[in-house]
Amino acid sequence: MRRKSKVVKIGEVKIGGGHPVVVQGMTKTLTEDIPSTIEQIQKLQRAGARIVRVAVPNMKAAKSLSLIKKEIEIPLVADIHFSSELALEAIKQGVDKIRINPGNMGEKKILPIIRKAQEKGIPIRIGVNSGSLKGIFPLKDKSNLEKHQRIIAKKMVESALKTINLLEKEDFREIVISLKSSDVLTTILSYRLISKKTIYPLHLGVTATGPLFQGLIKSAIGIGDLLVEGIGDTLRVSLSDSPLKEVKAAYEILKSLNLSRRGPVIISCPGCGRCKIDLNSAIKNLLPKLEEINFPLKIGIMGCEVNGPGEAREADLGVAYIKGAGVIFRKGKIIKRVKEEEIGETLLKEAKKLIPQ
Ligand code: SF4
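^ thats the input. predicted complex w/ iron/sulfur cluster below
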């Protein structure tokens, strides 16, 4: 039951209109360091990013964009704050989409960007960020938290709607919207609100989520909740960590809601007193092997033979560890026993038999 939204094309990638939710990545290199930026984009592409955004904070970065675009295969998005000159240069360089932040760009600066984007036939993302909104003050009385979150959500939506209005007045409708806050509930509230007020596709994300562990949880709750409600056409997970982990996390969120078929879903037990091996290390060793399976099989990795196959009955295939060996099972039924060092290869071989050719 996904929210109905307009289709917007970014390069060759379609978002909205019921198309599969698209995972985006963002580079963390200096954009003007062209070789490093290209290398990072290529890695993001291999990790599954279908669109990539780069920061464009200065003219040197803007003028690097055409050279970067030549070497990559996924659509390139320029992330612009404050300056219409940078946006105009990015469009001239051939980017596939522009992201602007209406919190730091007034009507006067946005108008020439709309006209240029219109001329080149590329979309614009109106990327509202709660931190850039004017008239928002830090909360003094914590008992008013919910009211504060609702006020910010409303202001973010107002900012987006005002900018949508400006674009539509110019007859520009290739629009994508995002409303990001570092507060999960504020983010959820603002997307819920905007989803009822516009048909444009929504780019989901919780911003400035923090270090890996915290960031993963905040992103999974914020983005996950919205996806469960049918809201969201594309997403980017942002973490204070490697951009490759952001893409991986985005797919894990989608896979846990059956919204992506990229790679296996691992069902592994937490381990307990019945487990006779170092299960965490065994899982860590197996994962790189299992990631070679480019199909959404459910793979069980369980810590004992007595309960493992049964507890992982919903897995298509799996292993239950015993000391120095593994019991391979399919849909809860044991099919063979192999030595510990043969577990990875055996799982791969058995997985291939289950993948439709
Ligand atoms: S599968 Fe075995 S080791 Fe894992 S949690 Fe269950 S009983 Fe414990």
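Residues 269-272, 274-275, 302-304, 307-308, 311 surround iron/sulfur cluster (CB under 6 Å).
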